[in-house]
Amino acid sequence: MDPDAAVCYVFAMNRRVRAPSFVVLAAVLLAAARPSAGADSLLRWNAPLPKLYAAAEGGDARSLALLGARLRLGDGAANDYAAAGEFLRSAADAGDPVGMVHLAALVERGRAVPRDSALAAELYARALPALRKGAEEGDPDAALELGNLYAWGNAVPEDQEEANRRYRPAAAAGHPRALYLLGYRLFHGIGAEPDRDAGVGLLQEAAGAGNTAAAYMLGDLYAAGEGVPIDPERAESFYRAAESGPRPAEAVGPDGYRFAGEGVPGDRAVPGHQPPPHRMEIAEGSCGEACIWSILRARAVEATQFAINRAGGAPGRGLHAYELDDALERYGIDNDHNYGYKALFGPPYIRDWIRNLLHRPSPGPESWEAHLEEILAELRARRPVLVGVKIYPDRFPDWPCDHFLLLVGCNDETGEILYNDFQERKRMPAARLLGTEKGYSLVNRYGVFYRIFFR
Question: pTM for the complete prediction?
Fold first, then answer.
């Protein structure tokens, strides 16, 4: 993170305030009668963060709204739902419709605030008249959010063609997010006939204006040759531009671990192992590449997921278990990989055939209990662990492993594990890894376990 962004993040962390849903609603209802101060703001979506923070501190409603929106989306700023909620509450209280819309999105999804669909609907409805007025007066931020309302059917009937019509003036004004959204939609034919050339053109404009999502999508397109010629060098340049941008911030202190503004007392996390800001679209998924990206970045090794994929020797599809070892060796990362069996010897299919022949049952969860305890011991020592898991209900019963996760912390008080999953950090009960009902699990019918310890 650059110094300005780090200062801004600390500033945001220090001024957070929580408010119950009814307080937010009351503030917005009172503010609805007041005109929005956002129309008079001189700052727009892609304003430098220090300027946005300074204007927000001065009470400028639109700057509060834009800052909160960018923190919510992780657009050019470290994603932080709790700080976003504070700024958006202040913007909504001042009557800014952009702030209302993004606050509604937080409330609708329960991000750092209680989930409340009725309140979210009320906020969308309150924002609608001011967004219409702002769009008519040439406000690109209002035009963008009005397009979003039509795209998702919030406070208006869903209408994808109307969404595109609303996005266009914002894109014409150079709004980076509008350029990205309209480019994405034209490329894929959402609300219009597919127009890949126009879509790529808008995506390139968005990337040039600093939108990392557009840059990452262009990397995917040039890597796969979709709508553009295959060009690994251009793909790498777009991926590098996107992955070198702002990433989620972390703070490890006496009261536990915080990620994206959320944490629980008792959390013990491995420092530095943040997930990548984007998810690479690639055949069979990029979960292994995302895990290794975090490992490398924590060791000050700069490499994109695209480069990691190629280092593992599988360009064009996700890395398999043995290829993760190859990629780690390529980058000189010291590790202790352990790929073994808890029951019978031989490859999975042969062992399954022998088990059936001998009428032996498949290994149960107890076969992985010691395995899980070893993993937890590594996490308590603040060392990450890369594991292979099944995903239940099991759609691919012939596979011993469906997915890779990077485990990056634990909480003995809550019995949870913290883990990176593609570009997100999540948490789950550690005991769930021994279950087979729903979600990620170490358990598979072949008795196979896969893990990598890092030293």
Answer: 0.78
